[in-house]
Design a protein that fits this description.
Largest sheet: 5 strands, mixed
Radius of gyration: 21 Å
Oligomer: single chain
Shape: globular
Strand order of the largest sheet: 3-2-1-4-5
Number of helices: 7
Order of helices and strands: HEEEHEHHEHHH
Structural class: alpha/beta
């Protein structure tokens, strides 16, 4: 038996009308021109394992790289919330200890009442998880405030097995590769500080996202996903 290389990929379903409908809604949203009164905001999240050093690392020298002991202590997990506004070339990382509805609602409220306080609406592209709902605002805040927040959010959910359509997932991949991977973070505060520095640096040096895939491209390249017309 020969060993063959395996590539892990998000394999789209075949002939799935719901997948197609949600995909085209996301792609149509990305084609909208920039509107400061109704910006398009993408969000995604991922857990991070916190690891404490059991022995102090030895700093790098002219002859040796930094040396870190192979042993470590598990210190729980944290959750990274990635928010990005593609057409504005802006992204921000929020780090919390958990990933509940309350965590999501608090972070969304912070943006809606802060950066987007003057916006009539915000179009939110995100995964269709049970934590990403208008009801989450009502579990976190009094009804009056919850309604003020919920009425300003227009959800645009990516399809199941279609998270690759979320631009925030690309930003999560970037922060993982450039900031988090290969490092040990023993405390939430340290992870929060480092990811904040990362987002500030990228915002200062990187332009907006140039999303190339259009609806016509999807109808051609992903033809197998579209159902056969039965009428």
């Amino acid at each position: 038996m020969t060993n063959r290389k395996i590539e892990y990929w998000v394999i789209p379903p075949k002939s799935d009308a719901e997948f197609v409908a949600n995909m085209e809604q996301v792609l149509e949203t990305y084609e909208k021109p920039y509107d400061p009164a109704c910006p398009v905001l993408c969000m995604d999240e991922q857990p991070v394992q916190l690891l404490k050093e059991t022995r102090p690392p030895i700093p790098a020298t002219a002859k040796h790289a930094k040396r870190v002991d192979y042993e470590y202590e598990r210190a729980g997990t944290a959750n990274i919330f990635m928010f990005t506004e593609p057409l504005a070339g802006w992204r921000e990382v929020a780090v919390r200890e958990t990933k509940t509805k309350l965590d999501w609602a608090v972070e969304m409220a912070r943006l809606l009442e802060g950066r987007y306080a003057s916006c009539e609406r915000v179009i939110l592209v995100c995964d269709n998880l049970n934590t990403h709902t208008k009801g989450a605002f009502y579990e976190a805040f009094e009804p009056e405030r919850a309604r003020q927040l919920a009425r300003r959010v227009e959800f645009c959910y990516t399809p199941k097995h279609g998270s690759w359509l979320n631009i925030a997932e690309n930003e999560l991949s970037s922060v993982t590769r450039q900031c988090v991977a290969g490092r040990r973070f023993g405390e939430v505060e340290t992870l929060r500080d480092e990811t904040s520095v990362w987002s500030t640096d990228v915002n200062n040096t990187q332009r907006g996202v140039d999303w190339q895939m259009k609806i016509d491209d999807a109808r051609c390249k992903l033809k197998s996903v579209y159902p056969k017309i039965k009428l």
